[in-house]
Here is the input.
Amino acid sequence: DAKTTQPPSMDCAEGRAANLPCNHSTISGNEYVYWYRQIHSQGPQYIIHGLKNNETNEMASLIITEDRKSSTLILPHATLRDTAVYYCIALKTSYDKVIFGPGTSLSVIP
Amino acid sequence: EPEVTQTPSHQVTQMGQEVILRCVPISNHLYFYWYRQILGQKVEFLVSFYNNEISEKSEIFDDQFSVERPDGSNFTLKIRSTKLEDSAMYFCASLSSSSSYEQYFGPGTRLTVT
Here is the structure.
């Protein structure tokens, strides 16, 4: 699986959009970009995934660059409950083991 | 919404004792996983289980560890002789099918080995 790199931490004001970047320059054509998050001491939670096209669901939007070397997770209106560690992961299949890196610790500030 | 459940939420055991961590995956899910997270560290994969057998395991998952799906609903992780370094949060996860995309994680069991 491709290695991903993320900034270790970010802050976001409550109510504003949180844009979390991820670099995956070695991603292969059949690897999806997945995002999970872990709220303190809880189990990780799936957010969204995509291959080439931008994706949106009730939680977030995922923007993938045309060359697929990077992506951005967007939380459109961050709330305090969105404070968590966010993980960007490249996976060939959904049933692969999830390899969690250090992720980005997002702090939503009132 | 269906969810993965884990029991107990916290287990304290003495070094050298056997522990069994229990998970009830979401009904009709076919793929099962155990992960662990040592305090302050990242979540690490331990083992995946499909079709009643281990499909993949990590280097952490040595002979002291075993998994079982004894009755079609529970999925257990056994540590035969616990060590201090086994102290961690253990997460169970399940996935519906190969065409699904979301691994559902349970709330975890905090294991403390003294």
About this structure: The CA atoms of residues 20 and 71 of chain A lie 8 Å apart. The radius of gyration of chain A is 13 Å. The interface with chain B takes residues 32, 34, 38, 41-46, 49, 93-95, 97-103 of chain A (CB under 8 Å). Chain A has no helices and nine strands.
